Amino acid sequence: MPQIEIYTQPGCPYCIRAVGLLESKKVDFKEINAPRGTKEREESIERSGGRTTVPQVFVDGQLIGGCDDLMALERQGQLDAKLGLG
């Protein structure tokens, strides 16, 4: 199974939605709490090539993107393969 990481911030509706989708897929993932001003948020920005929003999702170190990107992959039927389910 690929390593899945998601940077989130408490109370963020997009983060909640993205985490919910990953949970519905029953995949193991690491949720990294990354509120503004933390080293985790800076790490997320650096890893994502300058994206300052959360969530940011990575699969095996490769950026998938934010919530909208994750949902788009799901609608296109491509998310399961990215998550190692297909």
How would you explain this protein's 3D organization?
With 86 residues, the chain is an alpha+beta fold. It has one domain (4-83): Glutaredoxin (3-Layer(aba) Sandwich). The chain is 40% helix and 20% strand. The protein contains four helices and four strands. The chain has helices at 13-24, 39-47, 67-75, 79-82, and strands at residues 4-8, 30-33, 56-59, 62-65. It has a four-stranded mixed sheet, sandwiched between helices. It is globular. The model has no long low-confidence stretch (mean pLDDT 97). Has a glutathione-disulfide oxidoreductase activity in the presence of NADPH and glutathione reductase. Reduces low molecular weight disulfides and proteins. Keywords: Cytoplasm, Disulfide bond, Electron transport, Redox-active center, Transport. This is Glutaredoxin. InterPro entries: GLR_AS, Glutaredoxin, Glutaredoxin_subgr, GRX_bact, Thioredoxin-like_sf.
Examine the coordinates and then state which fold CATH places here, giving the name of the CATH topology: Glutaredoxin
Low-confidence stretches: none
> What is the global morphology?
globular
Termini gap: 11 Å
Helix percent reads 25-40%
SS elements, strand count: 4
Structural class: alpha+beta
Number of domains: 1
In this structure, how is the largest beta sheet organized? 4 strands, mixed
Gross CATH architecture: 3-Layer(aba) Sandwich
Estimated share of beta-strand residues = 15-25%
What oligomerization state is this entry in? single chain
Order of SSEs, N→C?
EHEHEEHH
The radius of gyration computed from the alpha-carbon positions, rounded to a whole number of angstroms, is 12 Å
The CATH class designation is Alpha Beta
Note the total helix count: 4
- The CATH superfamily name is Glutaredoxin
Strand order of the largest sheet: 2-1-3-4
Provide mean pLDDT, rounded: 97
